[in-house]
């Protein structure tokens, strides 16, 4: 029932905003030719807001000479995180920070969360490249009526607990671990823990009420969610790929832009994909150092346990493709090929190639 209530609330919000005249796609306002409404479920304190959404807005407005205005709506002001596609299709939002795992139509995108041996930079480079070649990944976006503009790829996620030390694989067994991703839920259960579904915004309450005694999250987000006051132990040697988040524009809005404006929006997306990824990695590294200095315990696992983890995760990609069906096998093959073509060395550098972008106006 709580999930249903959230969806009903989001639907009512959409209806209310539409009644107020805000559900009609990109509109003229304040002397600008076009106003783009950007819906984000994250707060204005999140690294993806400060190093992603705000610079995106600044670049677009500056390079369009004020012909495009971007309005930012953080913290689910326009609707629930699980209703991003609905907001885009209704015209409530023109851009939306989206979690593909919540959207069945974008299911192939979740393949980037699989344990394929890629680091964050390889993932963001591979995801960006997927927008520029034909295949199941780009095709799903076209079928869903959205245009991918930003690859919001952050630092790896890790298992952390409230009070239980995590010196080895056995110590994870029986933990009740919160996670918001289907793939992470599967990986957590392969480690011997009990996976409990919960959005990132819900994890503080779940931990505080002892519904769970562990979580899978990135270190850079601990402080913003109050987790630094509840968590005491972690296993940095066992990284899980971060959720495959995107910023999408509705196809209708994209087609309504001139080619010059599409190029500006495209370039803004490329730049913030790079910069927000770099910022997220730096934030997590700095925060982990700060937490450790305050008494947070990092546990190093023996190599034999790390080898066991690799063995436990080995068939997860193939199982994902089999369970998902459709062309998930083709999507997995494409993801592996894209990852193999990236080097993941040093600062992320995403190639700008508007001409090969698979989303014409």
UniProtKB/TrEMBL annotation:
| Segments for region (Disordered) | 341-361
Transmembrane in keyword set:
no
Q: Which UniProt keywords apply?
A: Signal
Q: Which Pfam families match?
A: DctP
Name the InterPro entries on file. DctP_fam, TRAP_DctP_sf
Instruction: Please name the Gene3D superfamilies in this protein's record.
Output: Bacterial extracellular solute-binding protein, family 7
Does this entry carry the keyword Signal? yes
- For this entry, the protein name equals TRAP transporter substrate-binding protein DctP
* Organism expressing this protein natively: Nocardiopsis coralli
């Amino acid at each position: 029932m709580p999930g249903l209530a959230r969806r009903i609330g989001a639907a009512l919000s959409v209806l209310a905003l539409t009644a107020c005249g805000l559900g009609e796609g990109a509109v003229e306002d304040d002397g600008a030719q076009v106003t783009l409404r950007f819906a984000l479920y994250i707060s204005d304190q999140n690294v993806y807001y400060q190093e992603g959404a705000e610079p995106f807005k600044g670049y677009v407005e500056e390079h369009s000479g004020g012909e495009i205005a971007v309005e930012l709506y953080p913290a689910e002001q326009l609707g629930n995180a699980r209703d991003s596609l609905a907001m885009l299709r209704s015209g409530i939002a023109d851009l939306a920070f989206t979690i593909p795992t919540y959207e069945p139509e974008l299911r192939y995108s979740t393949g980037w969360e699989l344990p394929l041996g890629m680091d964050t930079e390889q993932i963001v480079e591979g995801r960006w490249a997927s927008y520029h070649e034909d295949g199941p990944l780009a095709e799903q976006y076209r079928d869903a009526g959205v245009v991918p503009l930003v690859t919001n790829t952050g630092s790896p996620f890790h298992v952390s607990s409230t009070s239980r030390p995590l010196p080895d694989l056995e110590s994870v067994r029986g933990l009740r671990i919160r996670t918001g991703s289907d793939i992470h839920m599967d990986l957590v259960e392969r480690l011997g823990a009990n996976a409990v579904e919960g959005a990132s915004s819900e994890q503080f309450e779940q931990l505080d009420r002892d519904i769970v005694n562990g979580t899978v999250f990135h270190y850079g987000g601990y402080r913003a969610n109050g987790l630094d006051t509840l968590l005491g132990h972690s296993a940095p040697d066992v990284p899980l790929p971060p959720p495959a988040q995107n910023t999408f524009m509705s196809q209708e809005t994209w087609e309504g832009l001139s080619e010059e404006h599409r190029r500006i929006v495209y370039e803004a997306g490329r730049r913030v994909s790079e910069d927000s990824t770099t910022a997220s990695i730096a934030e997590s590294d700095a925060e982990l150092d700060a937490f450790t200095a305050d008494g947070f315990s990092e546990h190093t696992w023996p190599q034999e346990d790390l080898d066991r983890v690799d063995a436990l995760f080995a068939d997860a990609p193939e199982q994902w493709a089999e369970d998902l069906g459709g062309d998930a096998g083709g999507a997995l093959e494409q993801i592996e090929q894209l990852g193999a073509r990236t080097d993941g060395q040093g600062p992320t550098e995403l190639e700008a190639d508007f001409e090969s972008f698979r989303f014409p106006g």
